[in-house]
Design a protein that fits this description.
- The protein is of the alpha+beta class.
- It has a domain of 149 residues.
- It has 13 helices and 11 strands.
- A 5-stranded antiparallel beta sheet has the order 3-4-7-5-6.
- Helix 11 runs antiparallel to helix 12.
- The longest helix has 18 residues.
- It starts with a helix and ends with a helix.
């Protein structure tokens, strides 16, 4: 444990660029002490085998603009390019994006005590949950806000903190069953870097999101898919979805339906229909299922082109 971590209490919060915490401070949702972080790990490092390690302080804009990332990990670069606004991408960091708090309007209201603020229930369940989960995995139905977590899940990335190493995205964020937390970092635990696996030869990736307006909005549904096309056949398929559950999800039924199959329009359409396997939509979120099917089809068709 670093000296900095040892001095923090449960009410303290780290601040890097502050694109999330500044808004929560203004609204009164966040009131505890702030520990400002020095930007000590904002670089992208490449190993001899061609794999990458991205420092937690690397900005989203830097990831989106990095030509080598675009070539080796195109789904990561596309997801980074698609989120927020240019101004936010210029400041927001990868570590901050992973550790950001819920965007649920009940959580963001300082007058309401939801599960994530020590309350006893999730007011979105019986209230307005139009933009919430279509996969009901636990007591909180707010979708996880991190686009980069979703894309990193598709790439089997691992996270290093100042206390632990090689955390998977589920290790970092949980399985959605803990309604009181947006992540599983301990108080004072700091994300330091994200490691990406060696790119596969001839791998392709594609990312798309559906939003409620044309610009600068959190996604209703977003999909990142990657695969190797060998002889017109899908191999090593990975598909991740965001905006649909308290954590980003792998669409394993879609992956299995594509693995080893020819990249035809019929196969893609059949696999896309499996995107909603296991879904438990709320009364107001059933529309997300149709969006999922359409996005998966579009994204996987993009891989096959």
């Amino acid at each position: 444990m670093s000296p900095l971590s040892a001095t923090m209490d449960a009410a303290s919060e780290f601040r890097a660029a502050g694109t999330d915490i500044s808004e929560r401070r203004r609204s009164g949702v966040s009131r505890g002490p702030i520990v400002d972080l020095a930007a000590i790990s904002g670089t992208i490092e490449w190993a001899a085998d061609g794999s990458a390690r991205i420092g937690a302080f690397t900005t989203i804009a830097a990831i989106a603009a990095d030509a080598r990332i675009r070539d080796a990990y195109p789904g990561i670069a596309a997801a980074a390019q698609g989120l927020a606004t240019p101004q936010i991408r210029h400041l927001a960091t990868l570590g901050g994006n992973l550790a950001q708090r819920s965007r649920c309007w009940y959580f963001r209201n300082p007058q309401i005590d939801c599960l994530k603020k020590g309350g006893s229930d999730c007011p979105a369940r019986s209230g307005n949950h139009l933009y919430h989960a279509a996969f009901d995995l636990g007591p909180c139905v707010a979708p996880h806000p991190s686009t980069m977590a979703m894309a990193l899940l598709a790439y089997d990335a691992t996270v290093a903190t100042d206390r632990r190493n090689r955390l998977s995205i589920p290790d970092l964020l949980g399985d959605g069953g803990n309604g009181a937390a947006d992540h599983l970092l301990a108080p004072g635990e700091k994300i330091e870097a994200i490691a990406l696996p060696l790119p596969q030869a001839s791998e392709r990736a594609h990312y798309k999101r559906a939003i409620s307006r044309t610009y600068a909005e959190w996604p209703l549904v977003e999909i990142c898919a990657r695969a190797v096309l060998s002889g017109g056949t899908f191999r090593n398929v990975r598909i991740a979805a965001g905006g649909i559950a308290p954590v980003p999800l792998r669409l394993t039924a879609c992956e299995a339906a594509l693995e080893g199959k020819p990249a035809t329009a019929e196969i893609v359409a059949q696999a896309a229909q499996l995107a909603t396997s296991g879904a438990k939509p709320l009364p107001m979120t059933g529309y997300k299922l149709e969006l999922m099917v359409g996005l998966v089809r579009d994204v996987v068709e993009g891989l096959a082109k």
